[in-house]
Amino acid sequence: MSEITSTATLDAESRSGLRGTYQAKAYAAQSEISGLARTSIHRRNPQPQDIQLEILYCGVCHSDLHQVRNEWKSVVPTVYPCVPGHEIVGRVVKTGSAVKKFKEGDLGAVGCMVGSCGVCANCREGLEQYCEKFPILTYNGEDTVLGGVTYGGYSESIVVDEAFALRVSDRLDPAATAPLLCAGITTYSPLRHWNVRKRQKLGVVGLGGLGHMALKFGNAFGAHVVLFTTSPSKTADALRLGAHEVVLSKNEAEMQKHVGSFDFILDAVSADHDVSAYLNLLKRDGTLTLVGLPSNPIPVPAFGLIMGRKQLSGSAIGGILETQEMLDFCADNGITCDIELIRIQQINEAYNRLVRGDVRYRFVIDMVSLK
Ligand code: NAP
Ligand code: ZN
Fold first, then answer.
1. pLDDT at residue 156 above 90?
2. Domain 184-314 falls under CATH 3.40.50.150
């Protein structure tokens, strides 16, 4: 265990007056307009099935920004203070007595979920993300142990049931691995589910954190990969990341060349945009899957779907088993994220850059900067 964490644990227990918890440094938003600033939160002391991670790196997902700014208020209103972060890689510093998968000193990871009911049909199939009672999200979820709300990875440490922690191979760079816990699994899972493969044409819409991982996975699965972007300056990077072609989505003539040609399109755009333009690009029986989560409802013309028996679908992250499969696939195939490492003090500026689509291709917070 690192000295810093153990000292924090002792101090926290004596200071907090809350039995069974310790204090951890964190960054939180106090309201939808406050931005993020330093704070201190309570974490539970590890229970028998828990591990405590000293967080080394945490990726910055656009979902963090949506929730910090309460952009999903009609579906999942944000509870403040909000400590975001669900792309967590850390070092195991404590293990509960019943822990089997981890020992002190191991690398471990936490993604978007820290619990689920465990007994519904979806949980039993390893699809905890579709838990009928709703999964316990890593932040802005219901903390069933301490009460109140869960706090995420913009923090020096986290305690999690080992069933929701992932193992990280020593062959992977931990900083570039962190975004795999959300951007990675959210793109891997639908490409696997819809069996995107050789001799298929895959479209990826939006080159951000999710989009750049979709290019890498689509390429690794053998598909012909086409990126749709609003940013001409990202063309060369897209080709390097795995795209075979790049289309500027605002260029009508370029879009026309691809009408009726795609087996599968993955839409990873964070803001309002015209989804029907992509339905036109699908082949008969093709599928357009939304992973991006703009706050407004999306208008879909029925004609765009019925002519060609097209399918419009969505997909949320991935289950724990599949997340481990994805991490192992990445270790075996040398796949990680392209990241820009930031200090936590740069987080508000990073959010403003995300809104502008100015990310290459995932911000990752070096948590040393919080010490
Ligand atoms: P990101 O890094 O900010 O990337 C989003 C990309 O969308 C931008 O880089 C930009 O790409 C494109 N874009 C932005 N504004 C646009 C506009 N007005 N019109 C067209 N394109 C635009 O975001 P991310 O972290 O990858 O997340 C993407 C979305 O997925 C977010 O809504 C997030 O909440 C959601 N998400 C969903 C799940 C899930 O389980 N389904 C999981 C994680 C995240 P170009 O510059 O190439 O156009
Ligand atoms: Zn995310």
1. yes
2. no
